[in-house]
Amino acid sequence: MKKIILFILGGIVGCILFFTFFYMSGFLFEILGIVLYESESDQQRNFNIFIILSAVFSIVGGWFFVRKFA
């Protein structure tokens, strides 16, 4: 049970860190005037990449927490 809780907690922490990183990089790109997408299909592609990477960061965060604290 402890490993499951640690994995879920690590996944949440991984998602929060990933979201914060992407939010801050998007904020920086906006200040610099860098446009990340020109059309709706570009926007959808970026969203799909974000969803896949957030899942990866959740799994890695969960694995790290179990490995480090269990």
Summarize the structure.
This protein is an all-alpha fold.
What this model shows, in words?
The longest helix has 31 residues. This protein is elongated. It starts with a helix and ends with a helix. With 70 residues, the chain is an all-alpha fold. Helix 1 runs antiparallel to helix 2. The chain is built from 2 helices and no strands. It has one domain.
Which tags fit this structure?
mainly alpha
Secondary structure: number of strands: 0
Average of the residue pLDDT scores = 94
What would you call the shape? elongated
Task: Give the total of domains.
Answer: 1
Specify Rg, calculated over alpha carbons: 15 Å
Order of helices and strands: HH
Strand content: under 5%
Low-confidence runs (pLDDT<50, min 5 residues)? none
How much helical structure, as a percent, in the residues?
over 70%
Main sheet characteristics: none
List the helices and strands and how they pair.
Layout: H1 2-32, H2 40-69
